[in-house]
Specification:
275 residues, mainly alpha, 13 helices, 74% helix, extended
Length: 275
């Protein structure tokens, strides 16, 4: 049975909204009709990370495609609510437009903002006022618990710092990390899993705190370190195979020699690439 949809050489956002409606309508796609907010909520997260991947790879074509996938997720969720008579895509667009205008009094009003920091402070001030947020504690509660743990920790710490709850200098944050490591070491012999997990969490939280002082994004830093580990481990396996070393039975000293050799080889490769 033919569906009520006009085929074109080029489509716009209104065609996307219409297309999603057709897919979820009787005679459309059974899978699309079955979906709910809950059933596809993780798809949104996956598509978002694919956008980030395209950005990191500087893949313009991939970015265009992945942004389309994000837009599809928005259109699907809006269509589900339109079907219930709650809101539609235009309502969402209207609300974000109004929010942007209200949150930018330094553009659309008489508030001055000469740099990015002043603009962000202006945004936060309006946000606090419009949402009725009275203090940073309430602001912290607005940070989704579903965020990646390192990202959430960094955002929470930034809000605490805005309230004046922060070390005056880097040394304070570094000393706190050493203190938390000592507490973790003290907890280990007791073999109390809850206590060990709590102390380990404190160590990670302190590491994130240091990242703020040295202006490093903790998520990006850990991702880079994981990539670095993978590159070195791959080379360690190659070296072990070339030397007929069974990694599973080899002692840690032998493996450490391979690891250090891999570090040197990779460093030399990077130097050659830079020339």
């Amino acid at each position: 049975m033919a569906v009520d949809f006009e085929f074109k050489d080029s489509y716009d956002v209104y065609d996307l909204i219409r297309l999603v409606s057709v897919l979820r309508a009787p005679g459309g796609c059974p899978w699309d009709r079955e979906q709910t907010h809950e059933s596809i909520k993780k798809n949104f997260i996956e598509e978002t990370y694919e956008v980030v991947e395209a950005i990191n790879k500087k893949d313009t074509g991939g970015l265009r495609e992945e942004l389309g996938d994000i837009l599809l997720q928005v259109a699907l969720h809006c269509e589900m609510e339109r079907e219930k008579g709650s809101f539609n895509f235009n309502d969402v667009a209207n609300e974000i437009c109004q929010k942007l205008i209200v949150r930018h009094p330094h553009v659309f009003g008489n508030v001055a903002a000469e740099n990015g920091k002043e603009a962000l402070d202006s945004w936060d001030a309006v946000k606090f006022k419009t949402k009725g947020i009275k203090n940073q504690s309430e602001s912290m509660l607005k940070v989704p618990r579903e965020l990646p743990a390192l990202m959430r920790a960094q955002k929470i710490q930034q809000k605490a710092a805005k309230a004046g709850f922060d070390w005056q200098e880097l040394d304070g944050a570094v000393n706190k990390l050493y203190e938390e490591i000592d507490e973790l070491k003290s907890a280990l012999p007791g073999n109390n899993r809850e206590e060990i997990e709590a102390e380990f969490g404190d160590v990670l939280f302190s590491c994130v705190n240091i990242s703020r002082f040295i202006d490093v994004d903790s998520e990006e830093a850990l991702t880079a370190s994981t990539d670095k580990f993978m590159d070195r481990f791959k080379l360690v396996e190659t070296l072990a195979r070339e030397q007929n070393i069974d990694m599973k039975s080899a002692d840690i000293e032998t493996l450490d020699i391979l690891w250090e050799r891999a570090k040197i080889i990779i460093a030399e490769r990077h130097k050659m690439e830079e020339k």
